[in-house]
Design goal:
Lyase, Ornithine Decarboxylase, Chain A, domain 1; alpha/beta; TIM Barrel; 9-stranded mixed β-sheet; 12 helices; elongated; 20 strands; about 25% strand; 8-stranded parallel barrel; binds ligand LLP; single chain
Length: about 400
């Protein structure tokens, strides 16, 4: 993704032509970036030979899942819908883990029937439900138990999951009790200890702390876990100023605990696999003069990309057509939805824009389309995958008929 003589390109395709042919707003993905991310992830943890399960919640596009599967990744799913999609993408059930605090009986039955690798349970009630279903089917079911390590992920509070006040996982004390219970179960085989402390983590220290807690709990449980599932959470850089996660330090901390407890490591990365693979292309509908800034009113809105409205997340905005100009403006980029939070970003010294110009919203591959909605009865945008010069529509724009 770069400018070639002032026009923005994804691989070999000019974004302006995509906008002309497929209208805006539109999600455009780069296959090359996806491949790079997966290969880098694998390289970073090569010495562990881990099972990498892509967190489908980050992006559930079926065609993308099929591409991800081709690199040998498994899937981390959190609903019947995600599990169905992962299976439809051809992902081997033996590479699928099922997370989430509220799996229904229907979801558990389906997962058990499909013989997935692990159900990561998050409460005693859930374990009892799994046991009941397994007994009914005269089957033995493999599970993990998610530990809440009470570790601050030092990320946005809305996406932190590993502190004791969070709804996720079980406390150390409860974990140890559950291990005792499951040890004696005829129908449940405890295979895994799992953790996930949050998302968009850029500092390795929370991971180190989390691993220390896991180490202590394994020791106290006196149980041999076949898998240690460390979840996802690896952050990406949404702006040039932000430093990337130090994977070497994270790896070193993992190796340290593996010296004491040999186990197969599972990762559940979402954002680090798809976050920087996509842009959202949008057109300026109107420019409106405010009292101290100008509003750029876009045809993309919070229903297309929810992260800024929901978390105050900042996605860089770029002009599609770079021009050399000394005329710079302060702009607030907003959508047309009737909510004050329908605002993407305020930028100082942006090149002067005109109505009908195109802009690029960056790094929207993770939790972009997957969090989109039909709020205000707006149609969900199309998704396009670019491979070199090849253009593949991987999801058509919704039609009004789909909604009415
Ligand atoms: N595993 C579990 C159990 C999770 O809950 C999550 C994300 C992941 C893996 C993947 O985490 P990642 O590698 O993508 O950080 N919508 C928010 C992020 C929510 C993350 C929820 N859980 C956002 O747009 O920032």
């Amino acid at each position: 993704m770069k400018y070639i003589s002032k026009s923005f390109f994804i691989e070999g395709v000019k974004v302006r032509n995509l906008a002309k042919n497929f209208k805006t707003p539109i999600y455009c993905y780069s296959y090359k970036k996806l491949k790079e991310n997966i290969n880098n992830f694998k390289k970073n943890f090569k010495s562990l030979n881990p099972l990498v399960c892509f967190a489908v919640k980050a992006n559930a596009n079926l065609k993308l899942l099929k591409e991800i599967k081709k690199f040998g990744l498994g899937a981390d799913v959190v609903s019947l819908g995600e599990l169905t999609k992962a299976l439809k993408a051809g992902i081997n059930p033996k590479k699928i883990v099922f997370s989430g605090v509220g799996k229904t009986s229907e979801e558990l039955r389906f997962a058990i029937d499909k013989k997935i690798l692990l159900i990561n349970a998050e409460s005693k009630s859930e374990i009892l439900e799994i046991e009941k279903i397994a007994r009914g089917k005269r089957r033995s079911v493999n599970i993990g138990i998610r530990l809440n390590p009470n570790t601050d992920a030092k990320t946005l509070s809305q996406i932190s999951t590993g502190k004791k006040q969070d709804k996720f996982g079980v406390s150390e004390k409860y974990f140890l009790e559950l291990v005792k219970y499951v040890k004696n179960s005829q129908f449940i085989k405890l295979k895994c200890i799992s953790v996930h402390i949050g998302s968009q983590i850029l500092n390795h220290q929370p991971f180190e702390k989390m691993l220390k807690v896991v180490d202590g709990v394994i020791k106290k449980s006196n149980y041999k876990f076949e898998f240690i599932d460390l979840g996802g959470g690896m952050g990406i850089s949404y702006s040039k100023r932000v430093k990337n996660l130090n994977y070497k330090k994270y790896l070193a901390a993992i190796k340290k605990i593996l010296k004491k407890h040999t186990a197969k490591i599972i990762f559940e990365p979402g954002r680090s696999i798809v976050g920087n693979t996509a842009i959202l292309v949008s057109k300026v509908i109107y420019i409106k003069q405010g009292s101290n800034k100008n509003f750029i009113i876009l045809d993309a809105a919070m229903n297309d990309l929810m992260r800024p409205a929901l978390y105050g997340a900042k996605h860089q905005i770029l002009p599609e057509n770079k021009i050399k100009t000394s005329s710079k403006k302060t702009y607030e980029f907003v959508g047309p939805i009737c909510e004050s939070t329908d605002s993407f970003l305020t930028v100082k010294k942006f090149q002067k824009l005109n109505e009908k110009d195109l802009i690029i919203i960056s790094d929207v591959g993770a939790y972009g389309m997957s969090l989109s909605s039909n709020y205000n009865v707006r149609l969900k945008p199309a998704e396009i995958l670019i491979k070199g010069r090849k253009i593949n529509i991987i999801k058509k724009r919704q039609k009004l008929e789909d909604l009415i």
